[in-house]
Amino acid sequence: MAVYTQVSAERIAELLSRYDVGTLVSAKGIAEGVENSNYVLETDRSRFILTLYEKRVDADDLPFFLKLLDHLAARGQPVPPAIADKAGRQIQSVNGKPACLIVFLPGLSPGEPNVAQSRSAGAALGKLHQSLIDFADLRPNTLSLPGWHELARRCGDALEEIAPDLGKIVAEELAFLDANWPSELPRSAIHADLFPDNVLMLDDKVTGIIDFYFACTDIRAYDLAVTHAAWCFDDEGRSFDAERSAALIAGYAEQLPLSDDEREALPILARGASLRFLLTRAWDWLNTPDDALVTRKDPAAFLRRLEFYRAAGSELFAR
Ligand SMILES: Nc1ncnc2c1ncn2[C@@H]1O[C@H](COP(=O)(O)OP(=O)(O)O)[C@@H](O)[C@H]1O
Ligand SMILES: N[C@@H](CCOP(=O)(O)O)C(=O)O
Q1: What dihedral angle (degrees, nearest 10) is formed by the CA atoms of 130, 133, 136, 142?
Q2: Which among 49, 73, 103 is the end of a domain?
Q3: Which CDD domains match (predicted)?
């Protein structure tokens, strides 16, 4: 579960009195999620999310994330902006943590997405990128090649506790990506973590895109590769679903056409995306205490994806 910071009902009611959102009726901690503490709040007028940013979100990055959400919401994208209080402030301090009151979006995250949902997710990402073409603010991606090198170095020999030869596999992959990572593809603000649990849906329709706290400026097609790795396999990364893959890419390309260069780069970008989640999960796996509240995610699920993309080569994303 992910409620790291307990906030009393009295404190939440006091917080809400600064806003024009009605009076508190109920407040419940949300079990899902791993990064922040989230509560769902009911007032006599509506429903909201209260997010307290825990140590993984740098408070200095919050203005970037909030401006990005405002930009997307103003363009009709299904994202949850932070609400401003009566004094115009979006960021508060609650129990010593930066916190925001956020619009609640309806929908459920697909457990194992179907083909139609994968197409909708691809289309939603395409629309998101289309809406971000004129978003000028920059946030460097700390989880790109140099960040992966650093994570691999910090994990060190402990990678062998996760899988035999993992240190060697990671070193070889980093060398490959150093030599082949594209530098000329279109860049913009990207979501960078569009897993099914960050998409809310009713039937096959996307009703919400949430959790922008890895958003950054990077290669647009890399965001598509992250989404592909997240949506087109079973959870453990053992079986690839070619139909979901084709639907996701087609859904994206219908909203924002992919250039030949972007399409050609996808196999490499997908290897990078797999390595990114392999390494962040490996780091968490090695550094999360056994009695922690949060469930650790399996790094091997992304080692299997990496092996799949290495073996599949360039045919996978061919038209
Ligand atoms: N704006 C929102 N509207 C509806 N539900 C939300 C919203 N934001 C978060 N949630 C719920 O809270 C859960 C955790 O949110 P998330 O942002 O993924 O947390 P974390 O950053 O800790 O991973 C989501 O799975 C979803 O159920
Ligand atoms: N999507 C990442 C973990 C990040 O967690 P989130 O709850 O903030 O999306 C992974 O699967 O490794």
Answers
A1: 70
A2: 103
A3: HomoserineK_II (cd05153)
The response to whether residue 210 sits with its C-beta less than 6 Å from ligand 1 reads yes
Q: Look up the CATH number of the domain holding residue 307.
A: 3.90.1200.10
191/243 same-domain check: yes
206's tokens: 């996307």
Q: What's the predicted TM-score (pTM) here?
A: 0.95
Ligand 2 atom with least separation from CA of 32: 7
Note whether 94 and 129 are same-domain residues. no
Same domain membership, residue 88 and residue 55:
yes
Structure confidence at residue 293 as a pLDDT band (50, 70, 90): low
Give me the domain span that covers residue 30.
Answer: 9-103
pLDDT computed for residue 292 by the predictor: 64
Ligand 2 center from residue 280 Cα (angstroms): 9
Residues 269 and 217 reside in one and the same domain: yes
Any residues with Cβ below 6 Å from ligand 2, and which? 33-35, 193, 195, 197-198, 211, 277, 280-281, 297
Q: Cβ(3) to ligand 1 under 6 A?
A: no
**Per-residue pLDDT tens for 137-151?**
999 999 999 999 999
Q: How far is 279 from 236, CA to CA, in rounded Å?
A: 16
Dmax (CA) of the chain: 58
Domain boundary among the residues 78, 103, 128 is at: 103
pLDDT score for 42: 97
| pLDDT score for 290 | 72
CA–centroid distance, 57 to ligand 1, in Å, is 14
The span from the CA of 172 to the CA of 132, in Å, is 34
Instruction: Note the pLDDT of residue 118.
Output: 98
Nearest CA residue ID for atom 15, ligand 1: 33
Name the residue among 255, 254, 259, 199 with its Cα closest to residue 226.
Answer: 199
Which residue's CA is the nearest one to ligand 1's atom 20? 33
Q: How do residues 93-126 score in pLDDT, each as one tens digit?
A: 999 999 999 999 999 999 999 999 999 999 999 9
Same domain for 88 and 123, yes or no, is: no
Are 169 and 278 in contact by the 8 Å Cβ rule? The answer is no
Structural domains in the chain (count)? 2
